[in-house]
Design goal:
The chain has seven helices and ten strands. The protein has about 270 residues and is an alpha+beta fold. A hairpin with a 4-residue loop joins strand 2 (about 20-25) and strand 3.
Length: about 270
Amino acid sequence: MTEFAALTHPGNREGENQDSIGWDTQQQLWFVADGMGGHASGEVASRVVKETLLAQAALVGVPAAVLLAHEAVCREAQQLDPARGMGSTVVTAQIQNRSAQIVWVGDSRAYLWRRGGLQRLTRDHSYLEMLRQEENLSETALRNQQGSNVVTQALGMGTPDPSQANVPLRHGDWIVLCSDGLPVELRDSEIAKTLAAHSASPKEAADALLKATMEHGGRDNISIIVIPYDGVSARGTWSLPGFKSRIFEWTAVLAGMVLAAAIALAWKRWTK
């Protein structure tokens, strides 16, 4: 497999970097955890998530390991009084059988970069995402809303229900994982533009995304993992929105042309 790229940076925010990133190449597993809470609590929460996933994912599977991480963060919060109420988001990607299984809680994200097109694979568990769905707001309108950092689910808080997506992969695809420090600063179109400019190298792409995020303010911790897929393409591969419809439209046009030609030929022979 082509070398993946992974980095985490505190950004321009004061204090410790509360993000944690990790991977298990034997299990083809990568993840980003974004901690939250009081002084040092977020850093503890994301570290607990990282340790739990690395210890448990191979034994019980990623979705179950994510729930075990939630329980572990809750236990840690009970033992460390200053960390009560701490939590962490998480987004994971595991590549198996020519597909990427994405599991997430919170607003850390996964994207698919395919043939110059970017598609978000996750839907944020956040107040803003609820607004977007209920009121059909544009990205610009969402950025002007208050409460942009309020998540509706997190590990260590409440009863999280991890979401999942299974994405058949094509040779040359990239999976991009990130904490919300990236999309807070860069629109999806800006992320796509940066990836396009550095599509020859996952490391160069990750570095360029970090640089662009910092230039836009870098107000939060920033974590980015770029995972290239150079395996065999899956059959029946999921496509970017609109791609299937365009294939269907052209197939229908061609089928119509063939049918018309056949009818014309038959008519010509019959009238001879």
